[in-house]
Design a protein that fits this description.
It is a single chain. The chain is an alpha/beta fold. The chain folds into two domains: 13-82, lambda repressor-like DNA-binding domains (434 Repressor (Amino-terminal Domain), Orthogonal Bundle), CATH 1.10.260.40; 90-115 and 156-273, Endonuclease, Chain A (2-Layer Sandwich), CATH 3.30.870. It has twelve helices and six strands. It has helices at residues 13-27, 32-39, 43-50, 58-68, 73-82, 90-97, 118-130, 136-152, 168-171, 177-192, 241-257, 261-273, and strands spanning 102-107, 160-166, 196-201, 215-219, 225-230, 235-238. It has a six-stranded mixed sheet with strand order 3-2-1-4-5-6, sandwiched between helices. Strand 5 (225-230) and strand 6 (235-238) form a beta hairpin. Helix 1 packs antiparallel against helix 5 and helix 4 (58-68) runs antiparallel to helix 5. The longest helix is centred in the middle third of the chain and has 17 residues, at 136-152. It is elongated. It starts with 12 loop residues before the first helix and ends with a helix.
Length: 276
């Protein structure tokens, strides 16, 4: 093929995306025109994405997955490109999160992302910029990506959500009263929903606290379970039953030791009233 442009997938994430798209297209024996017809895009557009001259969009990625039968492969790769400030493994986790029927969360130090108000999320992102941990553009991406995650859970049959927060999550003031008061009110509203359970793991649990790091557990429609945990610099997604089941067991033990939802809401109310 005389006009075929050789691709260097190592040159950038965008180039790697284009090379992968070409690989799957050619595996089906399709020309760019064939894929374009299946995706309802022009062949020129397909060529521009394959050669890295045009960024894929979420719509494009989902269309490619449907046309090529690749599950959510290209959607995940799109998110990895767009949200490069996210930890390794997190974009893949979010793909599962949007389809989960049950979500179990444990958090230390900050309100979990799925329950953060935009103002709370913005303060955290701006703080990371001030520390030069991320760029202002990446901060904007984090906040907008979080809004996308939250919207994905607002569906006709929302997942059952279980949340256990270390007491430090509600005691740590982020952004002052103007930010914390509506954030704590958001938690109280969450606890009142029919598909949620909120518990606080108090400081006096001491050594009975079963986790030393945040943990996310997802139950999918086929009842398989995915676990995600992260350190300061890396995230890790686990789908192996032998390692996920003990994490689920530890989560149940944590719930048994934590405050009841009624007592947890009462503590949150007390903290909200005492914010300086």
């Amino acid at each position: 093929m005389v006009n075929r442009k050789e691709l260097n997938p190592d040159s950038s994430p965008q180039a790697a995306y284009g090379a992968e798209l070409r690989r799957y297209r050619e595996a089906k024996g399709w020309k760019q025109e064939d894929l374009a017809a299946q995706m309802e895009y022009s062949s020129t557009h397909i060529s521009a994405v394959e050669t890295g001259r045009k960024m894929p969009t979420l719509r494009f990625a989902r269309s490619a997955d449907r046309a090529l039968g690749t599950g959510d492969l290209f959607e995940r790769k799109y998110r990895e490109i767009k949200h490069g400030a996210l930890l390794e493994g997190f974009s893949e986790y979010v793909g599962y999160e949007g389809r989960a029927v049950e979500i179990r969360l444990y958090e230390i130090g900050i309100i979990p992302g799925l329950l953060q108000t935009p103002e709370y999320a913005r303060v955290l992102a701006d703080s990371a910029v001030q520390r030069r941990a991320i760029t202002p553009e990446q901060a904007d991406e984090r906040v907008s990506f979080l809004a996308e995650r939250q919207q994905a859970l607002e569906r006709s049959r929302p997942p059952m959500m279980f949340l256990v927060m270390d007491e430090s999550c509600i005691r740590r003031t982020v952004g002052g009263r103007a930010v914390m008061e509506p954030q704590l009110e958001r938690l109280i509203e969450f606890a009142a929903a029919p598909n949620t359970v909120l518990q606080v793991a108090p400081f006096d649990m001491g050594e009975r606290r079963t986790f030393n790091l945040p943990v996310n557990l997802l139950t999918l429609s086929d009842r398989s379970i995915v676990a995600y945990a992260e350190s300061q610099i890396q995230g890790y997604l686990d789908r192996e039953t032998t390692s996920v089941v003990p994490i689920l067991t530890a989560y149940h033990q944590l719930q048994a030791e934590a405050l009841s939802q009624t007592a947890s809401v009462a503590m949150i109310e007390q903290v909200r009233k005492g914010i300086p």
